[in-house]
Specification:
Layout: H1 10-13, E1 17-18, E2 27-33, H2 41-50, E3 55-59, H3 61-66, H4 68-76, E4 80-83, H5 96-107, E5 114-115, H6 124-130, E6 135-137, E7 141-142, H7 152-160, E8 168-172, H8 178-195, E9 198-199
The structure holds zinc ion (ZN).
Protein backbone atom coordinates (compact mmCIF):
# COMPACT_ATOMS: atom_id res chain seq x y z
CA UNK A 1 0.00 0.00 0.00
CA UNK A 2 1.20 3.48 -0.79
CA UNK A 3 -0.20 7.01 -0.90
CA UNK A 4 0.53 9.16 -3.92
CA UNK A 5 0.75 12.29 -1.80
CA UNK A 6 2.25 12.16 1.68
CA UNK A 7 -0.46 13.41 4.08
CA UNK A 8 0.63 16.61 5.82
CA UNK A 9 -0.20 15.04 9.21
CA UNK A 10 2.58 12.49 8.82
CA UNK A 11 5.29 15.06 8.25
CA UNK A 12 5.63 16.70 11.68
CA UNK A 13 5.88 13.23 13.21
CA UNK A 14 9.11 12.72 11.35
CA UNK A 15 10.93 16.03 11.56
CA UNK A 16 14.23 14.31 10.94
CA UNK A 17 13.18 13.59 7.37
CA UNK A 18 12.97 15.96 4.42
CA UNK A 19 9.55 15.76 2.73
CA UNK A 20 9.78 18.89 0.58
CA UNK A 21 12.13 21.82 0.03
CA UNK A 22 10.84 25.05 1.61
CA UNK A 23 10.59 27.72 -1.11
CA UNK A 24 8.17 30.33 -2.39
CA UNK A 25 9.68 30.04 -5.88
CA UNK A 26 8.26 27.91 -8.69
CA UNK A 27 10.80 25.15 -8.11
CA UNK A 28 10.37 21.38 -8.21
CA UNK A 29 12.70 18.53 -7.31
CA UNK A 30 12.52 15.43 -9.50
CA UNK A 31 14.19 12.35 -8.03
CA UNK A 32 14.91 8.88 -9.43
CA UNK A 33 15.37 5.74 -7.37
CA UNK A 34 17.03 2.35 -7.97
CA UNK A 35 19.38 3.06 -10.90
CA UNK A 36 21.60 3.52 -12.69
CA UNK A 37 20.01 1.13 -15.20
CA UNK A 38 21.28 0.92 -18.79
CA UNK A 39 18.52 1.62 -21.31
CA UNK A 40 16.51 3.54 -18.71
CA UNK A 41 18.72 6.05 -16.90
CA UNK A 42 20.34 7.17 -20.16
CA UNK A 43 16.95 7.83 -21.76
CA UNK A 44 15.82 9.75 -18.66
CA UNK A 45 19.02 11.82 -18.89
CA UNK A 46 18.29 12.61 -22.56
CA UNK A 47 14.78 13.80 -21.63
CA UNK A 48 16.08 15.92 -18.73
CA UNK A 49 18.63 17.53 -21.03
CA UNK A 50 15.98 18.36 -23.63
CA UNK A 51 14.02 20.36 -21.00
CA UNK A 52 17.14 21.77 -19.28
CA UNK A 53 16.02 20.10 -16.06
CA UNK A 54 18.26 18.94 -13.23
CA UNK A 55 17.31 16.06 -10.94
CA UNK A 56 18.59 13.88 -8.11
CA UNK A 57 19.41 10.19 -8.65
CA UNK A 58 19.21 7.95 -5.56
CA UNK A 59 21.44 5.10 -6.73
CA UNK A 60 21.92 1.56 -5.50
CA UNK A 61 25.58 0.89 -4.72
CA UNK A 62 25.55 -2.42 -6.60
CA UNK A 63 24.26 -0.70 -9.74
CA UNK A 64 26.89 2.03 -9.50
CA UNK A 65 29.62 -0.60 -9.36
CA UNK A 66 28.11 -2.46 -12.33
CA UNK A 67 27.54 0.64 -14.46
CA UNK A 68 30.23 3.19 -13.59
CA UNK A 69 30.06 5.03 -16.94
CA UNK A 70 26.35 5.66 -16.56
CA UNK A 71 26.88 6.86 -12.99
CA UNK A 72 29.59 9.21 -14.24
CA UNK A 73 27.26 10.55 -16.94
CA UNK A 74 24.70 11.54 -14.26
CA UNK A 75 27.40 13.54 -12.49
CA UNK A 76 28.83 15.04 -15.69
CA UNK A 77 25.43 16.40 -16.66
CA UNK A 78 25.07 18.36 -13.44
CA UNK A 79 22.57 16.23 -11.54
CA UNK A 80 22.75 15.38 -7.85
CA UNK A 81 23.38 11.91 -6.50
CA UNK A 82 22.05 10.25 -3.38
CA UNK A 83 22.66 6.95 -1.60
CA UNK A 84 19.73 4.50 -1.84
CA UNK A 85 21.60 1.63 -0.09
CA UNK A 86 23.67 -1.18 -1.57
CA UNK A 87 20.89 -3.54 -2.65
CA UNK A 88 17.54 -2.23 -1.38
CA UNK A 89 16.95 -3.84 2.04
CA UNK A 90 13.65 -3.28 3.84
CA UNK A 91 14.55 -1.37 7.01
CA UNK A 92 11.56 -2.79 8.89
CA UNK A 93 12.80 -6.35 8.30
CA UNK A 94 16.54 -5.76 8.71
CA UNK A 95 18.63 -5.46 11.86
CA UNK A 96 20.10 -2.02 12.53
CA UNK A 97 23.64 -3.24 12.10
CA UNK A 98 23.09 -4.90 8.72
CA UNK A 99 21.02 -1.93 7.53
CA UNK A 100 23.83 0.47 8.39
CA UNK A 101 26.46 -1.76 6.83
CA UNK A 102 24.37 -1.93 3.67
CA UNK A 103 24.07 1.86 3.47
CA UNK A 104 27.73 2.48 4.25
CA UNK A 105 28.85 -0.09 1.68
CA UNK A 106 26.95 1.93 -0.94
CA UNK A 107 28.47 5.09 0.50
CA UNK A 108 31.93 3.88 -0.49
CA UNK A 109 30.89 4.25 -4.13
CA UNK A 110 28.39 7.11 -3.91
CA UNK A 111 29.79 10.49 -2.86
CA UNK A 112 26.75 12.13 -1.32
CA UNK A 113 25.36 13.42 1.96
CA UNK A 114 21.83 12.39 0.93
CA UNK A 115 20.18 9.07 1.74
CA UNK A 116 16.74 7.79 0.78
CA UNK A 117 15.56 4.62 2.55
CA UNK A 118 14.40 1.85 0.17
CA UNK A 119 10.57 1.61 0.22
CA UNK A 120 10.69 4.61 2.57
CA UNK A 121 10.93 2.05 5.36
CA UNK A 122 13.43 2.81 8.08
CA UNK A 123 13.23 2.44 11.84
CA UNK A 124 13.85 5.41 14.12
CA UNK A 125 17.07 3.88 15.42
CA UNK A 126 18.36 3.29 11.88
CA UNK A 127 17.43 6.86 10.97
CA UNK A 128 19.13 8.23 14.05
CA UNK A 129 22.36 6.45 13.17
CA UNK A 130 22.32 7.44 9.50
CA UNK A 131 21.52 11.07 10.30
CA UNK A 132 25.06 11.53 11.59
CA UNK A 133 26.28 11.17 8.02
CA UNK A 134 23.23 11.83 5.86
CA UNK A 135 20.26 14.06 5.29
CA UNK A 136 17.29 11.69 4.96
CA UNK A 137 15.30 12.57 1.86
CA UNK A 138 11.73 11.34 1.55
CA UNK A 139 9.21 12.76 -0.95
CA UNK A 140 6.08 14.80 -1.48
CA UNK A 141 4.63 12.97 -4.50
CA UNK A 142 4.95 9.39 -5.77
CA UNK A 143 4.30 8.97 -9.49
CA UNK A 144 3.62 5.24 -8.74
CA UNK A 145 5.50 4.43 -11.97
CA UNK A 146 6.69 1.16 -10.36
CA UNK A 147 3.11 -0.17 -10.10
CA UNK A 148 2.17 -2.36 -13.09
CA UNK A 149 -1.52 -1.75 -12.31
CA UNK A 150 -1.07 1.99 -12.95
CA UNK A 151 -1.15 3.39 -16.51
CA UNK A 152 1.39 5.92 -17.82
CA UNK A 153 -1.42 8.51 -18.01
CA UNK A 154 -2.35 7.91 -14.36
CA UNK A 155 1.30 8.35 -13.31
CA UNK A 156 1.28 11.70 -15.04
CA UNK A 157 -1.94 12.72 -13.27
CA UNK A 158 -0.49 11.58 -9.94
CA UNK A 159 2.35 14.03 -10.43
CA UNK A 160 0.51 16.99 -11.96
CA UNK A 161 -2.38 17.03 -9.50
CA UNK A 162 -0.23 16.87 -6.36
CA UNK A 163 2.64 19.32 -6.83
CA UNK A 164 3.32 22.56 -4.98
CA UNK A 165 6.39 24.79 -4.95
CA UNK A 166 9.28 22.79 -3.49
CA UNK A 167 7.68 19.37 -4.00
CA UNK A 168 9.96 16.34 -4.19
CA UNK A 169 8.69 13.98 -6.90
CA UNK A 170 9.66 10.29 -7.13
CA UNK A 171 10.26 8.39 -10.36
CA UNK A 172 12.19 5.13 -10.80
CA UNK A 173 14.95 4.53 -13.35
CA UNK A 174 14.35 0.78 -13.21
CA UNK A 175 13.29 -1.69 -15.93
CA UNK A 176 10.00 -2.31 -14.12
CA UNK A 177 9.03 1.37 -14.15
CA UNK A 178 10.54 2.25 -17.54
CA UNK A 179 7.37 2.52 -19.64
CA UNK A 180 5.40 4.53 -17.07
CA UNK A 181 8.34 6.67 -16.05
CA UNK A 182 9.50 7.73 -19.52
CA UNK A 183 5.99 8.81 -20.49
CA UNK A 184 5.18 10.60 -17.23
CA UNK A 185 8.63 12.24 -17.06
CA UNK A 186 8.48 13.72 -20.55
CA UNK A 187 4.86 14.88 -20.26
CA UNK A 188 5.32 16.38 -16.81
CA UNK A 189 8.48 18.23 -17.92
CA UNK A 190 6.58 19.60 -20.90
CA UNK A 191 3.94 20.92 -18.50
CA UNK A 192 6.44 22.25 -15.94
CA UNK A 193 8.34 24.18 -18.63
CA UNK A 194 5.14 25.70 -20.04
CA UNK A 195 4.13 26.75 -16.52
CA UNK A 196 7.55 28.31 -15.81
CA UNK A 197 8.84 25.87 -13.17
CA UNK A 198 12.56 25.37 -12.60
CA UNK A 199 13.65 21.77 -12.02
CA UNK A 200 16.43 21.71 -9.49
CA UNK A 201 18.73 19.07 -7.97
CA UNK A 202 18.68 18.50 -4.20
CA UNK A 203 22.05 19.59 -2.94
CA UNK A 204 24.10 17.61 -0.46
CA UNK A 205 24.63 19.30 2.91
ZN1 LIG B 1 14.03 2.07 -4.23
Amino acid sequence: MYLVRTPSLVKPLARDFVWSIPTSEQELYITFDDGPTPGVTDTALDILKKYEAKATFFCLGKNVVEHPALYQRILNEGHSIGNHSWDHPDGWKTSDISYLKNALRAGQHIQSGLFRPPYGRITLSQAKALRKKYQLIMWTVLSADFDPAVSPEKCLTNVLSNIDNGSIIVFHDSLKAKKNMLYALEESLKFFCEEGYTLRPITSP
